[in-house]
C-alpha cells in the first residue's frame, strides 16, 4: 500500500475530504485519495498535539537493503507518518502567543518522515507545502531560514561583535552543520499563496480564503471549512499536564522545569529556573512557558530576567509570553546570540529588529568572563551548533567558596567534534584549538550540571561525560527513557524538583509584599506599610476560592507569590491576576459585594489584611477619596482585554489616574486623543485603505482604538463616530503605555487583526 494512503483506512463510504479538531486552533485535514494531509494551524507544540492524536506515528518500511534508524541534525529518527502541508494563520499572534511556528512541523516532515533524507522511500522530490497569504508565507520562510542557520553571513557575525578571525571560524562551523551550503527556504519548501480566489494545493485539491483566518478546501464534489480563529476565552493548549508544585524562594536554587525535547509529548523542553536572592530568572523560554511557570507557582510578572542559550524553537517559542508583563524583563545573553534571536523574531513577526529592545531590558554578556549580575555571576561559553549558541555557567560566593550550576543546552558530541576537525581555514569545520577549548569547557566541574544528550549531529551524548567531575549530572533534552548505562553517568529529574545550592534565610515573599504595598500607596509612611505586613500569611493550594461571587469580604487579600484568577459569569470574562494584586480591598472599604469569583490558579502565598485594620489604615492615611476616584475605573479596566491581563493593581491605578472621560451624542464624531477606550455605548470606526476604499466596523464596551504611534511611526487613519450615546476614555500619556510590554504587544496584535 502507498505510504501516504496507509495513514488512513479507506473504504467506499468514507468522505473524500475530512477534518478533525486536534486542539484549540489546530485541525487535521486529509484527502487520502489526493495524498494530501494538512496540519491546519501550527502554534507551539503542534507536532506534539498530532502525536498525541495519533496522526503521527511510527511505521515499518520493507526494502531490499533492510530498514533502520536514520540520523539528522535534530537527533536519531524513525520512520513516521504526518502532514505534508501546513495551513498558516493569517495572524502571526493570537491571544498573545505565536500562531505560526512551522519550524518543528517542517523538521518532522523533512527528517522524521524522510522527505529530504537520501534513499528514503518518502524522498520523492516533493517538498512540504506552506499554505497561506503571501505576507504570512514569506514571514514563515524567513523565520525557518533563520531557525536553520541563524546569522548567515560573515558580515552579520562581525556586526554581532566578533573579531573577523573568530567570525570566519564561526562561519566554518556553521557550514559544517549546513552540509557546506546555506540554502534558501525555497529549496526545501513549496509555497501555496492563497487569497480570495481558489488555487490548487495538490492533485486536484483547491483552497480559497473566505475571510480572516477562515479557509475552504475543495476536492471533487466535497468541501471542508477551516476556522483558525481562537474563540472567546480560548487559548492555545499544552499537549501535556504538569503537576502543581510549591516553589520556595531561596538564596540560590535551581528548579528543573524541562528535561524533554521538541518531540517529547509528556514533558517541556530542556529548561531551568534559577532563584537568586528570591528573584526569579529563566534559562531559555520554550513552548508553553506560562503553563510551566504556573505549575511551580510563579507568575510571569515575578520573572526578573532570562538567560538565553540560542534561537531554536524549543528554547525560543515562549519569548512572547515574557512580554505578558507590566514591566520589561531583563534579557541576558551574548551579543552574538542576541543578534541571532532578534533576526529570527523580526522575521517571524515582520517587525524591525530594533523593536526587541522596546519589550526587553537588554544586557549583553561577555564570552568566557564572569559577568556579575547583582551578585549572581554568569559565564557564557561558546558551543558549536547550527545557530549561534552559548552554554551557561553560574556561580555565587558563599561560606565554603562558590556555589555553582551549569546549563549545557545545546552541545555537540565528542564524535561529532572530532569529525568537524579541519585546520584548513578555507573548508567547513573546526580548528583543533577551538575544539579542545569547547571540550574542556563542557567538562568543567560544578556542583550541579544539566546536559543535553539528544544525540545525532547537533546534540550531546551521556557517555561523553562519564569522567566529568561534577557532583551531580542531570541528563536532559531527550524523549527517551534513560538506559542503564546512562544512569551510571547521570540522572533524570522530575518536573518541579529543586536543587537548593544556598538556603535562603530572608523572608523574600514579605519583601515583595512591601514593594507591592508601596506601589499602591507611595505616599504612606513605611511604618504604616509594616503594620499591614505584620498581618497573617497563608499558603493556598490551586483551585482554592479566595473570594466568592456576591460575597462581601471581611478582609483584603494581597497575592505575594503565584497566580490567581478572576471569573465573572455576568460579564462572561476570565483573566489571570498577577502577583501583587490586592483582592477585595475596595469591596472591604465600601461594603460592596464581589462581582465574580477569585481563586488560586497555582500554589500562592497571600497576606490577609482584616477589614477593621484596612479601613483604619485607609482613614488615617487619608486615602478614601483617592480610592473612590480610581475604584470605578480600575474595576472597569480589569474586565477589558487590553488592561485586564497580567497588570498589577498598582499599575492599573496609575493608568486610571491618567484617563480622561468624554461623553458623545449619537452621530457625533469623536476626535482622536491618544489611546481611546469605550466605557459605554457603540462606536463605528472607518479605516481608509491604500486604494482609498473604507472598511467599517463597530466596537463596544471594553474595546479600544488609537495608540498606533506607540507601535508604528504611522498615525491612524481611522475615523470614529458614536453609533449610540457613548462614553469614551482617552489616555494621552504614551510613556505610561510604552513602559508596559503587554499593552504594547496587544496593540500590535490588534493592529494585525484590523489590517
Briefly summarize what is shown.
With 755 residues, this protein is α+β, with helices and mostly antiparallel strands. 25% of the residues lie in helices and 28% in strands. α3 (134-149) packs antiparallel against α8, α13 (508-520) crosses α14 and α17 crosses α19.
Structure description:
There is one protein chain. This protein folds into four domains: 5-133 and 194-227, no CATH class; 252-501, Ribonuclease Z/Hydroxyacylglutathione hydrolase-like (Metallo-beta-lactamase, Chain A), CATH 3.60.15; 511-622, Sandwich (Jelly Rolls), CATH 2.60.120; 659-754, Jelly Rolls (Sandwich). Strand 31 and strand 32 (573-577) form a beta hairpin. The radius of gyration is 27 Å and the shape is globular. The protein contains 21 helices and 43 strands. 25% of the residues lie in helices and 28% in strands. Strands 20-19-18-17-16-15-27 form a seven-stranded mixed β-sheet. A six-stranded mixed β-sheet has the order 1-2-3-6-9-10. The chain has a six-stranded mixed β-sheet with strand order 21-22-23-24-25-26. It is α+β, with helices and mostly antiparallel strands.
